Amino acid sequence: MADNFDQFADETAEKTAEEELASLTRQYLADRSKWEERQDIWYKMRNHGLRRTRMPFPKAADLHYPLIDTVIEKLTPFYLQQFSGAAMLAEFIVTDGSGKDIADLSEQAARFFDYDIKQNTNFEDEQEPLIDSMLLSGRAILKIRWDDARENLSYSVLDPLFFIVPTMTKNLQDAEFVTEVTQYSPAQYREIRVFKQDSDFIRLLQTKGDENGDGDESNDVKYTREGLSQPDGKTIVLWTTYRKEWVEEKYSRIVANPADGSEFAVEKTRKVRRVRVYTYAPHMPDKPVRPPFTLPYRHNEYPFVDFPAEGKEKRWYSPRGVAEKLASFEVYLCKTWNEKADAMTFYNNPIYSTNGSSIPNASNLKMAPGSIFQTALSRVDAGNPPISFDQEMINTRSAAESLVQVPDFGMGKQTDLSERRTATEIQAISQLSSAGQDARAQLFRKRLRQVYRQSWAILREYKNGAVLKFIHDGKARIADKGIFAENFDVSPAGAPNAWNRQYHAQVALQLLQLFRQDPNINQIALKRAVIETIAPQYLTDLIIDPIHEQAIRRILQELAQYEAQGGVVPPEARQQALAAIQEHFNAIKAANPQAAEALALQLGREMQPQAAPAQPGGRA
């Protein structure tokens, strides 16, 4: 009776947060089992191919046509252009509605962000793995965090299998919780000092257990193999669960004393929604690896951004990658290619008939040039193949590439190799293909915008007191710390169709021809747009910053207006003005001596008519 009571007490005991989250995560892990099985198939098809289950004859061909891998390799540069298609990563636009002109701060913020992300983080290293994961699995996960050791942002692409969310999740930031699966060697675990370092505890982390407590090891074996929820004796598996919860937070408020009007701070508490983090081993969640803590980032979002390959359905496991879309096409291409090789084997090694007569010692019969046989042999005619293997493979590949809209301007969709297309047809196909690519780029850039916003929010929080260095015009510069005080809308620079360099180059050159020397068009901005489109890497070297010329003209205009009103410029003020003009002129001369000479002549012509009446015969 006492034993039954103790058992009842254990069952009704309140679970810890880690045990509750582990149970829910395990349930959602089981719910996605079919999705996991499909992912295993897509991986094999992309990397190794599915082998022939039955050979028609010994040593028959077992070829793998790499359709999925080929299409992924073709699509990867298109997505990479969304990162590097413009001169800078992101654009910074003021959103406070004040109408004040802070164009200089916006440019400084954009240049600092571009330099810091490219030079001081691993963001560029993670771009191709991110794209590859998205195209293969249908959804990629990018983690964004602050690295205390490097004192900068850190990015990491997660394996979709190692990221668990509730099955009904539609929007990642609205998820009930998310669980990240991480694997450590014992040495790596000991390097993380915030984890429990007790030797007995580490030994328990490496010990496999029946996580469900039901004695059924079927799922345990599977997940041990995948490294999702069971250690294998050499690796420590941890689950880190992020959940948005209401927590109490203290804050100070300045109030006025009604008696004497003095101000003083009053400390209050309020409930706010924050991201709480729980770290534990899935087979022993009752023993947390570290105490729960609140994610320190003020953006109050999960530190992950997902990149779906398509936006057709909102369910988490609905987006299809290239592998899932093209699986049947690759299977058919492999079959056709193998049968073509089989047919070539039969045609190159024909079957002979003796017309009923026997062949003595037939086992010693060998076909070789110049051989003489005592029995008449006749070749068995296999006939012509019913289809053209090459044309069938071209048709299949064309249909597959049409499905995923490979950015080849429609040229890969020509099935009749002898057909000649008109220029109008080529243009129409190109426009239709570009429209589909632009829609795909727009979906990708929406997620990229979330990455840049989270990154900027973390930089504002952790680099507010640092020296904000960046490189511009080949010189080291320091950004104004006021860039962190402004409310910028951060979005990817460039346009969704930035991948189509040839089209943009043609448009830019046409604009240059139409509006060259037009007084109503900003010539510097026009030339900047042309260079940024054709060769953005040369933009800072070729374009002279107009701020120097503008400063010179502003100083000269102020002097002229002062003298026109009958005033006499003090010698010290005149010397300071001339020194400032000389400094700006030297900056232009260092960048382009010819431009400096042309500017001097132009200013001389502009100032001569005004200076001549005032000082006839004098120096202009």
Describe the structure.
The structure is a single chain. It is built from 18 helices and 14 strands. By secondary structure, the chain is α+β, with helices and mostly antiparallel strands. Strand 6 and strand 7 (263-280) form a beta hairpin. Helix 4 packs across helix 10 (322-348), helix 10 runs antiparallel to helix 11 and helix 13 runs antiparallel to helix 14. 24% of the residues are buried. The model is unreliable at 212-216 and 610-620 (pLDDT under 50).
Structural class: alpha+beta
* Quaternary: single chain
**Global mean pLDDT:** 82
Sheet having the most strands: 5 strands, antiparallel
Stretches with pLDDT under 50, minimum 5 residues = 212-216, 610-620
What global shape is seen?
A: flat
Share of helix, binned: 40-55%
Radius of gyration: 35 Å
Distance between the termini: 113 Å
